[in-house]
From TrEMBL, chains A, B:
Pfam families, per the entry: AA_kinase
UniProt name for this protein: Isopentenyl phosphate kinase
GO MF annotations, alphabetized: ATP binding; isopentenyl phosphate kinase activity; kinase activity
GO cellular component, one term: cytosol
UniProt catalytic activity: isopentenyl phosphate + ATP = isopentenyl diphosphate + ADP
Native organism taxonomy: Eukaryota, Viridiplantae, Streptophyta, Embryophyta, Tracheophyta
Length: 340, 340
């Protein structure tokens, strides 16, 4: 109901529809293979690009002073944060189009705790699963906190929103309840909701893991963003593992109204949608590329373009701006769109 | 509706009513005067007492091995956490009555950010208020994360639940919407929800601060716990600031059905309910003791005993266990109860 309201009043003073849902892939923002380690430079760069994409002024290239919104101490830094309240109060506005939603994966956070305990399989009568549920949530919400802070340092008014706390739940691992009203309220108030893959309650299994990709698909269905961007650690979807020197980047995939997909570019793979071992980030353990493609295909069928590209590149900046036309020969990444 | 269901089915296999709502006062668990600094020893002790109060076995005093549920790295500790999954999986159960809710204050977290920006006054068109909202939430959710971890290390299956994320909102600073269904679901699944004073959206003011004391009163009204405990840094409510050497501890306060309160013990102050400058923690900036007494009086009127006492003492342990009879001469603290 609330999301319909968001669509029905497109007037200038009414809430605008969501511009973009961004997935910050776990592989892009954490250091794989190192427990609970953030790739600080990659995260900082992704947040800076998000800010650029939100910016309402084209800018002359001169660095602007950013209104940092993380006024908390940083670990290991004894200095208290400095806040120039007078300067901030005098600003005319943020100058940002903040109608974005950020969803991030877990990367090297959460997987250890989830896999040691089998949270995804459910069964809260087991002390191991119950403890693992708590431990998994601690780990993924720690990452969420750090991502909210990184966005806030770039001047993006971000608010962390755990799906579990929002009351989202599943039934046999499929979303059963996922009220987006608080997300919509936050967007309307000018904040950028930051969600994440989370441990949630499941009607039949007691509990399971809800992945960031499923969350994105669900939000896209509810909120009809103009486009969806997946930032990862490789250039897009390949026809085989991207570590293979013969791997070919699939630049454009079309999805028909039955959900079947076919490769449009490169032309040499046209019509090929079987026997291609598509792969992006093999270490993404919540489904990997197959889940990602399937979720992306559902989004594309709605008429929403999906861009999958490498974080921290000129290509990711263009994707975040929605500046990827179908004949962009110089854009590196995968576009998944409806064939209609 | 959901809370009625919790009341209507008291059978052994049905959800039990909430036993206790505990306030971990900001003054007790943080170091006042030092920005964003946790009083680690006080927090650890409060969590250990909570575990003792939840324990279903009386215990012979021998230290039991605790099932720690924080499997994340700790800041500054390079070692990966060790998890004995086999031992955990072999446990018969937690042996804890987890029907508790924890709410904590902000102490030295959040106040700096909130007061520099005036978040409590509202007005999100102001860049300062918008930035302050984000900064305040970052600070208070950082503390929430640390409290959830401290509880989890004591084997308490805790889950962080920010009121903002739960969709709680106010209208002119009074609670307008505060759906507790996810809190109830979490309790039923055997988890201990951990809430906190938070920055929230306000229908009229755009935003404000919702204090932990107001949250406790609201939850007590919804969930009818057997008793409510406020843990603070002094022994209870005094007739004047507790730093005054002549301050007298008010041991028992009665609230009548009109909400008027009178001092029952000590006898020398009987009938005195005016001109007494009651005070507990003067540095508690979200209302101080006056708000606390008012909220406690509302709870007591419902027939729910409220215990206010000093964290980390034998008195706080007895309060958490609900072991405070009206004639306990050796219990140090303030009881607020209905006169009926």
């Amino acid at each position: 109901m609330a999301e319909e309201a968001a669509q029905e009043h497109p007037g200038p003073s009414a809430p605008r529809p969501v511009r973009c849902i961004v997935k910050l892939g776990g592989a892009a923002i954490t250091n794989k293979g190192e427990l609970e380690s953030i790739n600080e430079e990659s995260l900082r760069s992704a947040c800076a690009q998000l800010r650029q994409a939100m910016s309402e002024s084209e800018g002359d290239g001169a660095p602007e002073k950013v209104l940092g919104m993380d006024w908390s101490k940083r670990h290991g830094d004894p200095a208290d944060p400095a806040v120039d309240a007078e300067w901030i109060a005098g600003m005319a506005g943020l100058g940002l189009d903040t109608n974005f939603i950020v969803v991030h994966g877990a990367g090297s956070f959460g997987h250890f705790q989830a896999s040691r305990s089998g949270v995804h399989k459910g069964g809260l009568h087991s002390t191991l699963v119950k403890a693992g549920f708590v431990a998994t949530r601690i780990s993924v919400t720690s990452l969420n906190q750090e991502i909210v802070r990184a966005l806030a340092r770039e001047g993006i008014p971000s608010v962390g929103m755990s799906p579990f706390t929002c009351g989202w739940s599943t039934s046999q691992r499929k979303i059963a309840s996922a009220n987006a009203s608080q997300i919509i309220q936050s967007l309307h108030a000018g904040f950028v909701p930051v969600l994440h893959g989370d441990a949630v309650l499941d009607e039949l299994l007691d509990c399971t893991i809800l992945s960031g990709d499923v969350i994105i698909r669900h939000l896209a269905q509810l909120l009809s963003p103009k486009y969806v961007v997946f930032l990862t650690d490789v250039h897009g979807v390949y026809d085989r593992p991207p570590t293979d020197p013969n791997a070919v980047l699939l630049k454009e995939i079309e999805v028909d109204d039955k959900g079947s997909w076919s490769i449009v570019k490169p032309a040499l793979l046209q019509g090929n949608n079987k026997g291609v071992e598509i792969s992006v980030a093999a270490h993404d353990t919540t489904g990997g590329m197959e889940t990602k493609i399937l979720e992306a295909a559902v989004i594309a069928r709605l008429g929403i373009d999906v861009y999958i590209t490498k974080a921290g590149t000129e290509h990711s900046l263009r994707a975040l701006k929605g500046d990827v036309s179908s004949d962009s020969e110089d854009w590196l990444g995968t576009v998944i769109r409806s064939s209609k």
